[in-house]
Amino acid sequence: MTLRVTGLRKSFGGVHALRGVDLTIEPGEVHALLGHNGAGKSTLIKALGGAFTPDGGTIEVAGRTYDGLSPRQSIDAGIAIIFQHLSLVESLSVVDNVFLGQEHHRLGVVDRKAQRAAAATLLERLGATCTVDDRVGDLPMGQKQLVEIAKALSRDPVVLILDEPTAALSSHEIGALERTVRALQEQGLAICYVTHLLGEVERLADRMTVLRDGAVHVSTSLLGKTRRDIIEAIAEPPTDLPPRAPVHEADPPQLLVSGLTGPGIGPIDLAVRPGEIVGLYGLIGSGRTRTLEMLFGRRPRQGVISVGGRTVGRSSPRAALAAGLALVPGDRARQGLFAPLSALDNALLPAQGTLSRFGLRRRRAERAAFEKMAAGLAVHPSTPDAPARAFSGGNQQKLLLGRWVNGILPTTVLLLDEPTQGVDVRARHEIYRVVRTIAAERRTAVLFASTDPEEIVALADRALVMQEGRLVAELSGDALDEDALLHAVHQSESDLQEYLS
Amino acid sequence: MSAPASLRQLARYPLIPVIIAMAIGFELATGSFVGSQNLLGIATDSATLAIVAVPAALLVISGYLDLSVGSTYALGAVAAGWFASAHGGGLLSCVVLALLAGLAVGAINGFLCCVVGLSPFIVTLGTLTAVRGIAQQLAPLPLTGFGDGFAWLGGAKIAGLPSPVAIALLVVVVAGAILTLTPVGRHIYAIGVSREAAYLSGVRVRTVPFALFLGTGALAALAGAIKASVLGAVQSGTAGLGFELAVLTAVLVGGVSLAGGSGTLLGVVLGVAFLGILQNGLTLVGVPTFWQQVAQGLALVVAAGLAYLAPRLEALAAVRPQASRVSASAAESRPASRSAMS
Q1: pLDDT more than 70, % of chain B
Q2: Do the Cβ atoms of A336 and B200 come within 8 Å?
């Protein structure tokens, strides 16, 4: 018995992120952990990594039982986690990264020779092509990930957890990683593999556990299971969203982009009509975020962008906003929210100039506008003075939507990057509802980017699939389903299969 | 605003009870602390500090920093004093000259920090040294013999108040209005919290701090000119030496975070008052200057310690009811909890 999680519970400010999760992973097993954004996968992993103390339940590793772990205890217990955002120091060499914090030393002096030898052995075992002296910052993503795995293995773990390890890898690198995982499995490691991609589940996993809304929905062996069975296990019951807004083919596009080009992107041509919701689907690193940021003027670009028939001149957020083009960024904490400032400031910051008279703010008008916005977007609590950090992820996201959709600013094109990142299931559906309502009632053209195929299917009228900075497919109507999206994004998957066999 | 709310507002200013306690203590020790004469003296002595600490505080709230104010102060004093003594310059021309000198320093700082994007710490440390050199080059010898016109700047009464105090009040009122009544005031906070998020919200993230550098430079130079007028003499090598540290101390003791995005003008005014009262009271009591410096330094560290502890104590109090098992990690678990929700 290697890892056994029993009845794990955790809530954050009234939101139940984990409600009694059981999970058992045996030695030599690859266990796929599945579920949509907000289902509780990341929270579960963070609990195992010691990021916080669970409210209840136990974690048993190699025969020892814990109520909760500190990061140190987690490592000592033998849990190794490879997060999506690697924890490497880019300016240090491979060997220094592998042994960071657990240097081999003799009489307090680092034993470089022993470290280099040990690191070289580990890298060879993983099939890495980099050398121990390479600077990590210079390595391609796939090699960085192997360094991170080497670092984890140097601590002699019994459980290895990989959080969407292929999300940022090229198809060639994915093949290499999958072979590495197999090899580690044969050496008797218990492996927990978090992914969105069904192909990886089919190829690698022995068992799967599907989380839904913080609880285990299905946990089963994959022996004799087909892709259909996996999809059915993951699929959520349909939710009642407002109907899709009618899109009139005769309407001129609200957003028209031609020849959009930038570093590693394009050329991209696309059009979004008034009231239409278009989803931009692609894997991490495919250029979705960069495309949205170029449209918004956050990054330098070439090409012509017109909003409502008028060309946007300068490439800057201010010029974009003046033209009616607004972006809700994906990195809410860093790019969107002003956590210590009030909800009102967060929602109305760009509108305060319009609301003011003779250069002075009009508080009453601001409060009225906030109340109207909060009611329309169902912001809870609707207190204008509470700091934004006191709100749940979903309501923070609504404040950011309200920043552009408040009846004061002339937003006619709304760009959303990962609109439901870090929000729970209920908030996710509410954000879908809000976006649908905005499109239907204000005839706003919406272009949103997501790595979650289910999100694209649930929200988009039409999907554009992105690969390596280019649009490679367009899906709409009955042709738009998760299978089609996954197939389109992995068009080279047949090559990949060949490469693996 | 209801009574409990205003009480809670007061609780955000721990300096208020401290200042009251200090006033009582000094009064008991000397019997001459609380009197309009002495209090007005403190206000006059603190006025130049307030005139610079206020714009400097706005700059810190927006996430920037100006260390060059001590030398800009000297440059303003030299510019005004030189024109007043060598050319018989009147009040207006001397003040305009000082302001122009301060604006020039502010423009250089603003250009390098906001447009080029260099570190404000490095840039203003550089201008601190360079501008002092310029001031000494312009006036290697002490300047004296200013005309009556220029003497008015520091010696006049405006609405019954000594002119430095009146000017400081004007600066506080105007800055307070900008910070609380205008959209730009919100932008100053927003830029300090997250420059990136402010930029993506359409805020002018270069222009706003640039203007604050201009204002800080101009008011530092004006403060220097006022002091020159009060003293009737300027010495370029010593005028405003270490003034930048007094300004920064007042700003930080006043509760403005060096990380940007938080702080109030009332806090800064209290910070200036605190330092003025401390110096005046200790002098009255007969504490030697060196020990006064020690007290000022300790006050800064204690204030910083309080600012560091307050949110952590608050967080600890908030999580205690549910996290009884592992209380040591409770304080850290709070910030982590938001990002864990994916």
Answers
A1: 87
A2: yes
Which of A53, A334, A389 is the closest to B326 by Cβ? Answer: A53
Min Cα distance A385 → chain B (Å) is: 12
pLDDT over threshold 50, residue A226 = yes
Which residue on chain B is closest to A358 by alpha carbon?
B182
Q: What tokens appear for B37 in the block? A: 């004469």
Q: Which of A55, A317, A359 minimises the CB distance to B200?
A: A317
Helix (H) or strand (E) holding A307, with range, is strand A302-307
Residues of A in contact with B322 (CB under 8 A): 55
Question: Which contiguous run of DSSP H or E holds residue A474?
Answer: strand A470-476
Residues of A whose CB is below 8 A from B185: 361
Q: 0.90 cut: is pTM over it? A: no
How many Cβ pairs within 8 Å bridge chains A and B? Answer: 120
User: What's the confidence (pLDDT) of residue A369?
Assistant: 94
pLDDT tens, position by position, A135-187 = 998 888 788 888 998 998 888 899 999 988 877 676 677 788 888 899 999 98
- Tokens 């938001």 sit on residue: B338
Cβ burial B104-125 (10 Å sphere, 16+ → b, else e): bbbebbbebbbeeeeebeebbe
Where along chain A do the CATH 3.40.50.300 domains lie?
3-234, 255-337+409-500
3-state helix vs strand vs coil in chain B, percent to 5: 75, 0, 25
Fold of A255-337+409-500: Rossmann fold (3.40.50)
Lowest mean pLDDT among A358-367, A422-431, A479-488, B110-119: A422-431
Q: Specify if B340 maps to a domain.
A: no
Task: Tell me the per-residue pLDDT of A289-342, one tens digit each, with 9 for 90 and over.
Answer: 999 999 999 999 999 999 999 999 888 999 999 999 999 998 888 899 999 999
Nearest alpha-carbon partner for A148 in A172, A173, A122: A122
Q: How large is the angle between the packed helices B289-319 and B265-285, nearest 10 degrees?
A: 140
Going by CATH, does the domain composed of A3-234 fall within 3.30.530.20? Answer: no
Interface membership of A360 toward B (CB under 8 Å): yes
Give me the residues paired with residue A475 across strands: A463
Q: Per the domain annotation, does B58 fall within a domain?
A: yes
- Domain extent at residue B204: 18-309
The CB density around residue A358, as the number of other CB atoms within 10 Å, is 6
Residue B315 covered by a domain: no
Distance (Å, whole) CA B237 – CA B140: 8
Residue B6 inside a domain? The answer is no
Q: How far apart are CA A471 and CA A453, in angstroms?
A: 16
| Residue of A350, A402, A349, A348 whose CA lies nearest to A375 | A402
pLDDT grade for B72, boundaries at 50, 70 and 90: very high
Q: Which of residues 265-324 of B touch A (CB under 8 A)?
A: 322-323
Going B220 to B226 to B228 to B230, the CA torsion angle's sign is negative
* Residue type at position B146: F
Instruction: Give dist(CA A321, CA B5) in Å, integer.
Output: 37
Task: Check pLDDT > 90 for residue A253.
Answer: yes
Q: Do B338 and A389 touch (CB under 8 A)?
A: yes
What is the length of chain A?
A: 501
Residue of B nearest to A52 (CA): B333
- Structural domains counted in chain B: 1
Pairing of strands A190-194, A159-163: parallel
Q: What does the pLDDT average to over A203-214?
A: 91
CATH number at residue B41: 1.10.3470
In this model, does residue A285 exceed pLDDT 50?
yes
Residue range A53-110, pLDDT digits in tens: 899 999 999 889 999 888 889 988 999 999 877 888 989 999 999 998 888 878 778 8
Chain A residue closest in CA terms to B341: A422
Q: What percent of chain B has pLDDT over 90?
A: 68
